[in-house]
Design a protein that fits this description.
CATH topology of the largest domain: Coagulation Factor XIII, Chain A, domain 1
CATH class of the largest domain: Mainly Beta
Largest sheet: 8 strands, mixed
Number of domains: 3
Number of strands: 24
Shape: elongated
Oligomer: single chain
Radius of gyration: 25 Å
CATH architecture of the largest domain: Distorted Sandwich
Structural class: alpha+beta
Strand content: 15-25%
Amino acid sequence: MRSPIHLLRLASAVSAHTLFTTLFVDGENQGDGTCVRMPKDGETATAPIYPLTGDDMACGRDGGSPVPFVCPAPGGSTLTFQFRIWPNAEQPGAIDGGHKGPCSVYIKKVDDMFSDSASGPGWFKIWEDGYEAGSGMWCVDTLIANDGLLSVDLPTGLPAGYYLVRPELIALHQAYRGDPQFYHGCAQVFIPDGPEGRLDIPHEYAVSIPGHVEEDAPGLTFNLYEDEHSTYQIPGPEVYVPESSSSASASAAGGTRKEQRDGKIPDSCLLKNGNWCAKAVPRSSDQKSCWDGVDNCWAQSDVCWDTAPVTGGAGCEVWADYCEILSSACEEGNYEGPAAFEGEEQFAAVPGDIPVPYNTFEGTKVGESNKPATATKAAETDSATAESAPQETSGSSPGEEVVEWEDGTGRLKVSEDGRCGAETGQTCKGSAFGECCSRKGKCGRKTRHCACGCQSGFGECRE
């Protein structure tokens, strides 16, 4: 009787911090470790990444090595990243509550997922969240409240192709001692649809990793215990969100659709564990072919355990059980086979509901400035929104806030997607994204949403 190899490297150290372990695409669990580059050593997997100038700053330890699978993610889809203190989820927890700090998400387009370098130029930031004065919460606090799950929307302006997506946490509890702690990893995704043309990032937003942050940046020397939290500056470049000439999908004119050729999870895959895939055992009709099938099964089992990520080998155990069934059949003289595989992929229990993207920061789009509006611009915006300010009306459905515009052109609904303003006919008042409508038509709670040209006709404003 053979048994799977239990790898010591799957255990997590008691002094663990956190690790990005699992990717969700539009709420669908891709499987622990699937399409995710992560460290191979379980004893140090959750430790912070050093140094700031090292190649590991790109995708973490061992992040320079690609994994076999690339997960498809449609343009504009919601990606959710799960962080765990214990990579194999044997105990709950996302990160220590004292590790307060900001979060960011960077992406990089690559021509070849399996040969292009993760470190180096081509990265840009599509999302960030720091300290929220209103709630007194850091992004890491929000992450903990969401059970280690962080969601962001992919920009719709990304051309079809292969991308590395890099969620980053920075813990500031030791920053005043010159030790800001970085926790990050990379997911491999393929966007099948997107606008025509190249991805040309303006030079002021494009960065190299390492090199995206400076050791003496205010956000990395911040004293969490003495400095005023509301003055915190998130390190790295400003957020940049590519925008296509049309918001329509690739199926419409002006878009493209490509077929993923590399890193696809085979349709013939019977069972998946991380980036390993079980294949059907050959048919058998006599004693020799029966035992050959058993050897084939156990050989696949060895590969499963040898390649199991630090998130564990639950799928390997399922496959080993199947090998035992095949072995028992041969021992009993039942040579016609193999028996049908009836096992299922094992998913660690999701600790909570998949959160909607929070702090949906609009960033900078082509032809726009990310700088705060001038006083004149803010006054013009307030004047314009005041002219079309909506008034509440009766007749709405229970639980739905609906208001009628003064000019009678339509009705406002509470925002369901984080957008607001005249173009969408949605208000932020009462929405889950925040009460304020920014000058760029995004709901939120931060100063950039509630001041600097906030649209008072579509939410609250706090000048």
